[in-house]
């Protein structure tokens, strides 16, 4: 199974055993996520048998494997194992996309996942292998971008995000936004593409201009004194699931989770109303944003939220929303070079960066007007 190992799965499992009372499944095997599912199945069966010894004698027909979702970085699979005696065990396997270690801090992700799971969010973490993780199966459907703007779901997401922001991780509480943006900038600004057309498009980008934009925005957001929370940082529709019968919402996938600015996590979520197609006519208007803020600030009494608090959140979310555009634009450039997934990452850079430029003047005016008002009081 010749895929590159992103970390030492045995070391991760050993550390997890010290942190957890429960056993963490582990295997050093890796699976190539670019394989077609029929070719992947025997390798997944081998992986399952390696992790759970009592399955080692089961026939391959006892393992049913299906794709749940294939994002633009990872692949999520559901595995049903028929153990006999009418007993079936279900769980999910998440395969990391090739070269995602250039983008994602896997050590940070796994450290966070342990505590997020323990706090009752998402799926329970069950195991680790050469290039992915094993988690409990959530009986729920993934949201679509249009679902996220449904008033009832807006309220549920806001309340759940407030709860998520209260998770405590025993790690540095330093917000990671600008550290990550700077790392992405360093990698994105020195790429070379074999494809001549891609290289031509890439060379139209002014990295000096982007560097200046980052510096200017970092300075402006610094004046907002935005609270630092434990943030999801990637709350797009594909990372939110709901069980409609039980009316229960789940946040999944903590690849980008870290301590970060509250306004960034909310502003980034609003930007995701537009989906991967980046249809920014779907970006939430002020009334829609206020509905979210009310349920985040006072989940039990949303209509008692003050105008001052609503304004503060509005400025925070929309100013940090600009940072979200820069972050994912630079991410897109790195993925354009590194990813084997069939997605126009280079085009994604231009969609996000052009939206940043389109919004910048109005948002800067909004933030500066707010800050001058705060100084006068």
Runs in which pLDDT lies below 50 for 5 or more consecutive residues are: 1-5
- Given helix and strand content, the structural type is alpha+beta
Helical content band: 40-55%
What's the total count of β strands?
A: 11
Our count of helices gives 11
Average pLDDT for all residues: 89
Percentage of β-strand residues: 15-25%
Instruction: Compute the CA-based radius of gyration.
Output: 22 Å
For the sheet with most strands, the description reads: 6 strands, mixed
- In spatial order, strands of the major sheet run 1-5-6-4-3-2
Index terms:
377 residues; alpha+beta; 6-stranded mixed sheet; 3-stranded antiparallel sheet; 11 helices; 46% helix; globular; disordered N terminus
Description:
With 377 residues, the protein is an alpha+beta fold. The strands form 3 sheets. A 6-stranded mixed beta sheet has the order 1-5-6-4-3-2, with helices on both faces. It contains 11 helices and 11 strands. The longest helix is centred in the last third of the chain and has 32 residues, at 307-338. The chain is globular. Helices cover 46% and strands 16% of the residues. The model is unreliable at 1-5 (pLDDT under 50).
Blueprint of the fold:
Blueprint lengths: L8 H11 L5 E2 L10 H15 L11 E8 L3 E11 L2 E10 L9 H13 L6 E5 L2 E5 L4 E2 L8 H14 L12 H12 L7 H7 L4 H16 L5 E4 L8 E4 L4 E4 L6 E4 H10 L14 H12 L9 H32 L6 H32 L1
Parallel strand pairs: 1-5
Antiparallel strand pairs: 2-3, 3-4, 4-6, 5-6, 7-9, 8-11, 9-10
Helix pairs in contact: 4-9, 5-10, 7-10, 8-10, 9-10, 10-11
């Amino acid at each position: 199974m010749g895929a590159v190992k992103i970390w030492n799965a045995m070391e991760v499992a050993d550390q997890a055993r010290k942190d957890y009372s429960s056993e963490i499944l582990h295997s050093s095997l890796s699976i190539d996520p670019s394989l077609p599912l029929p070719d992947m199945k025997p390798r997944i069966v081998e992986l399952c048998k390696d992790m759970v010894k009592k399955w080692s004698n089961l026939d391959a027909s006892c393992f049913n494997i299906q794709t749940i979702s294939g994002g633009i970085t990872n692949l999520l699979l559901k595995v049903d194992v028929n153990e006999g005696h009418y007993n079936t065990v279900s769980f999910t396997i998440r395969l990391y996309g090739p070269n995602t270690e250039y983008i994602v801090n896997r050590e940070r992700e796994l450290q966070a996942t342990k505590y997020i799971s323990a706090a009752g969010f998402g799926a329970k973490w069950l195991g680790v292998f050469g290039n992915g993780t094993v988690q409990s199966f959530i009986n729920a459907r993934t949201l679509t971008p249009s679902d996220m703007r449904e008033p009832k779901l807006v309220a549920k997401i806001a309340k759940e995000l407030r709860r998520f922001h209260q998770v405590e991780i025993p790690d540095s509480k330093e917000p990671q936004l600008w550290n990550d943006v700077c790392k992405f900038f360093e990698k994105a600004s020195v790429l070379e593409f074999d494809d001549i057309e891609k290289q031509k498009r890439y060379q139209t980008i002014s990295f000096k201009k982007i560097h200046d934009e980052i510096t200017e925005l970092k300075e402006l957001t610094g004046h907002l004194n935005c609270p630092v929370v434990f943030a999801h940082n990637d709350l797009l529709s594909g990372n939110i699931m709901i069980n409609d019968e039980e009316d229960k919402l789940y946040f999944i996938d903590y690849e980008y989770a870290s301590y970060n600015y509250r306004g960034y996590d909310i502003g980034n979520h609003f930007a995701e109303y537009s989906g991967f197609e980046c249809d920014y006519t779907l970006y939430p208007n002020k009334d829609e944003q206020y509905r979210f803020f009310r349920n985040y600030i006072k989940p039990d009494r949303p209509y008692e939220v003050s105008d001052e608090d609503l304004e503060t959140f509005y400025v925070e979310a929309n100013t940090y929303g600009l940072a979200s555009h820069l972050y994912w634009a630079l991410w897109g450039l790195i993925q354009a070079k590194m990813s084997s997934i069939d997605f126009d990452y280079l085009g994604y850079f231009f969609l996000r960066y052009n939206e940043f430029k389109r919004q910048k003047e109005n948002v800067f005016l909004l933030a500066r007007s707010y800050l001058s008002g705060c100084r006068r009081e």
